[in-house]
Amino acid sequence: MKQPVIIVGVGEIGGVFARAFLSCGHPVYPVNRGTKAQRIKDHGINPAAVVVAVAEKDLEAALNDIPDAWNDRIVLVQNELLPCDWKAYDLSPTVMSIWFEKKYPKDYKPIIPSVVFGPQAGLVKTAMEALGIETRFLPSEEQLLEELITKNLYILTTNICGLEVGGTVGELWEKHQDLAKEVAQEVLAIQFRLVEKEMDRGSLIDGMARAFAGDPEHKCMGRSAHARLDRALILADKFGLPAEKLRYIKQKTRSDR
User: Fold this and answer.
1) pLDDT score of 42
2) For residues 77 and 180, is the Cβ–Cβ distance under 8 A?
3) At what angle do helices 121-130 and 12-23 cross, to 10 degrees?
4) Domains of the chain by range and CATH?
5) Are residues 211 and 188 in contact, defined by beta-carbon separation less than 8 angstroms?
6) Residue 44 reports pLDDT greater than 80
7) For residue range 118-142, what is the model confidence (pLDDT) as tens digits?
8) How many CB atoms lie within 10 A of CB 50?
9) Are 146 and 83 in contact (CB under 8 A)?
């Protein structure tokens, strides 16, 4: 029998990972609210991987709950993820930037190939591809950082622009590209302060545009859009960034609500 896999947070995305590993013959042990990971370890479970699939806001609590003995097997898949999120715990996890959507009652829908980097990358890639979810390895931490910022740029830009114009990502790029680029520049300014380095803005925006083309019918505004804008403005204030377009959209949406 293959080694088991722990899934922390078996919601929509966690459920996809559970199916993927089960299809490859790995027993899956779920950890949800009310279940402590330590209790599973106390039963002698030695996992091949510990996939942390909780929402961004629950990541800190989830990482604090994972036994230290499993730290070298952690797999992170959150949106808005950056190295500072795991380095605070002295971790070197496997990190996957997922580019598929899963919303009940629909099945998962790939947008572009997902990417993965880290010690469990081979295990994750094999499991994802068992479900037909194309996944590619990343060769370096530098490329991982570029991929994570591209994903963050996509999510934040589409959500925040969606508060202003609604619609799909294809419509955003076709009809409101100036708005998308203006918001994207302000989002990148925040991201660069978080990672403490500047990167090629044009390349990152091109990466976002490729994701738009992968699923042009994807809706811009998710249910977390307001919260994402609020978090972005908190960071802009922290770093002393003007973020004028973000503040304009916040003011306008406050008036509209």
Assistant:
1) 74
2) no
3) 90
4) 5-138 (3.40.50.720), 142-256 (1.10.1040.10)
5) no
6) yes
7) 999 999 999 999 999 999 999 999 9
8) 26
9) no
Question: Which residues face 5 on adjacent strands?
Answer: 28, 49
Q: Which DSSP letter does residue 119 get?
A: T
Query: Per-residue pLDDT tens for 200-225?
Result: 999 999 999 999 999 999 999 988 99
Q: Nearest CA to 84 among 223, 203, 192?
A: 192
Residue 139 neighbours by CB distance under 10 Å: 9
Q: What is the pTM of this model?
A: 0.94
The packing angle between helices 225-239 and 141-165, to 10°, is 120
Please report the pLDDT score of residue 9 as a whole number: 93
Per-residue three-class SS string for 169-237:
HHHHHHHCHHHHHHHHHHHHHHHHHHHCCCCCHHHHHHHHHHHHHHCCCCECCCCCHHHHHHHHHHHHH
Q: What value does the mean pLDDT take over residues 96-125?
A: 92
DSSP-derived 3-state class of residue 8? strand
Contact 76, 96 (CB under 8 A): yes
pLDDT for 158 equals 98
The residues, any chain, with a CB within 8 Å of residue 69's CB and separated by 6 or more, are 41
Q: What is the pLDDT of residue 239?
A: 98
The Cα 152–Cα 190 span in angstroms is: 11
State how far the Cα of 83 lies from the Cα of 140, in Å rounded to an integer.
13
Q: What is the pLDDT of residues 8-20, one digit of tens each?
A: 999 999 999 999 9
